[in-house]
Amino acid sequence: MLLASAHLIALQELAAEEAAGHATHSLAEDDPQEHIYRELELQGLILLQPPRAYQLSYAGREALDLMRAMHAENLLPTIDRLEHNWRFLGSDILAALHAATLKKGQIGPVTVDMLRARGFTKQVQVTLEKRQLTCLNRYGEAWRDFAEHHRPRLEIYGDLANAIRHIHPGYAQKPAAHMTAEQLALMEAMNLLAWSIPEGNNYVLTALGQAVYDALRKEGYSPLDVALDEPLLQVLAELADKGSSVLTPEQIASLQLLGYVDADEKLSEAGYAALKAYSLLQKEVPEKTRTFAITEPEVELLTTIDHLVQDHKPTNKEALHRVLVNRMVKRYRALEGRRGRTLRERTPLKRQAVALLEQVKEHDEWFNTNWDLEELLVGLEAFDLLRAEVEGRNMGYRLTFTGQKIVEEQEGNTREISATAVKALTIAETHLGVPAQWWIEQAREEELIGTGGITASGRFYANLANHCIRRLALTREEAELLEQLPDTEGESCGFGSNSREGLDEEKRNWALEKLEARGFIDRLVDCQMIRTEAGQLLTRAVSGAMHLGHPITPTLVCVLAAIRQVGTLYVKERKVRMQPHQWEEAERLSGLGESEFREMLHVARMGQYVGEATLTEAGLDLLAVQELIDKEYSVAAKRA
Questions:
Q1: Pairing state of beta strands 568-570 and 449-450?
Q2: Which InterPro entries did the record assign (predicted)?
Q3: Cα gap 592→615, rounded to integer Å
Q4: What are the start-end ranges of the H helices in 427-581?
Q5: Distance, CA of 138 to chain centre
Q6: 579-636, pLDDT tens digit by residue?
């Protein structure tokens, strides 16, 4: 939705004419305000009375009533005194309202000024914490609800279609040099593009905008003809469902002329893209943004395992540690002579590792000071990038298909991929999908966005975010951060944004990256953080295991799942009881050897997930979190 001062003035003028007894307002053919009325009509705020007359709709009256009420409470000046071309509502403002709603009305530091300037804020005193919060007032909530209940219409004429097919793919300051301000406003009004927060420095195509862009790639359109609208999409859907026999020859010819149907009366690539646009118009767009994260040492570990497997060498922990230390030493030797040309070469951890390399003569000691092999392995297992398997008498590791693909993608260009960077790409697929500007900058730094929009790497990691399997895992630091939310929020608006940040801050940021990539928290565009439903339940489940180095590992969850499958559930007590003879079956189902099963059972008891002969409420909560994650990512059927 887009409402600028010119739109509001036009609504007020229509209301004034209606009050004076004029049912409609007619426009001359050369009226300079024609595009304003067109944008209002597409958004359902006014009605067209052919050929060129307009009148207020119910939604338009509702919008005017809200503006007048805000003026009466001195939250805004009267409409005729608003600044020229001032954006009252737009994609960025609505995203800020949406983020505050997710935080139960609390507004983040990045968007306070933009929402206060529009009269959407109030101060709330938190007595127990002795502080004031800036929250949405009833008008902020009302405008958010208004925008959600009034969906714009899709209707693209030839002149706009010709402009869209030359548009820059996204993440740039201007879509195209030849595109006019009026055409940009039309696209935003139809929810085809959105501007970044907080300054609107970059635009992105929404999921609907991308589908429309893909549908309009054929050569020129007649300027006065409709190139794409909802009636046309309905005809295409009929063709797809029932075949060309249900359409008239005139309809087939028109679709062929527009490029949606080929000479054999079958859907073309453009036709399939148009059907995707139709599907997006018909269904609810997802609210949650999926993302993915992997650190540079984790990539090095994947590569190490891949090389050992190719050379038919053992991949147990001892072998991995020996080879990985040598790889990391070689890598950081190469960094010693460089002077931080890029952000990822200036991080505190890299500075410390390079500095210690000369001071510490024992390479194992140097590696263990900076990294933890067990933590790296658990982190990779959490995304199903590798799996443990019996290798003689020891446990070895093998890459999964996804892990192998990451090794191939990173070959010759090993780098970390942060959740915020990937989120800049995947958020366009969601409701009110507006990225934060610092997410975009991070994505550029990590080579997920280039001069031509999303890169091949960007598409690869965005696809991983949507489809890779998640297995429960949590380090102690991650568990502590999850427990501390919301107290940790608002302290840092953007991973790695300051090259002078401390080592502890970098580690904390990476812990947040992993929590978000696994679906436990959501960092909002206004610099706030919230726990997801899975994160809330996980916080409760892990409360008795905070003293463990790894409160949750994928192997631990496998053991708990085996116990639940074998034991007897007592619903009232929320416990699963085990009989002595059932432990052997649980061990078999876990897929672990006898010693590994007993060791993991001991850890589960230390974490209060398992009692002497029961799966506790905390253990059941942990399994419920895995079920939530499986449902969220639709991978339950794919799990091994």
A1: unpaired
A2: DUF505
A3: 18
A4: 437-445, 456-467, 476-484, 503-517, 533-541, 554-566
A5: 28
A6: 988 899 998 888 887 888 899 999 999 999 999 889 999 999 999 999 988 888 764 3
Residue 575 tokens, joined: 């416990």
Beta strands 131-136 and 46-49 are unpaired
* Extended beta strands in 465-613, E state: 521-523, 529-531, 568-570, 575-577
Q: Is the pTM of this model over 0.85?
A: yes
Mean pLDDT of 25-42: 88
How many angstroms separate the Cα of 604 from the Cα of each of 127, 308, 476, 546?
40, 32, 15, 12
458 CA to centre of own chain: 13
Residues composing the chain: 640
Cα torsion at 513, 514, 517, 518 (round to 10°)?
A: -150
Selection from 17, 21, 111, 121 nearest residue 64 by Cα: 17
Residue 238 contacts residue 173 (beta carbons within 8 Å): no
Question: Does position 285 have pLDDT exceeding 80, yes or no?
Answer: no
Model confidence pLDDT, tens digit, residues 40-49: 999 999 998 8
**Which secondary-structure segment (H or E) carries 391?**
strand 386-391
Return the structure tokens found at 395: 């446990």
**CA 431 to CA 488: how far, in whole Å?**
26
Question: What's phi and psi for 247, nearest 5 deg?
Answer: -105, 155
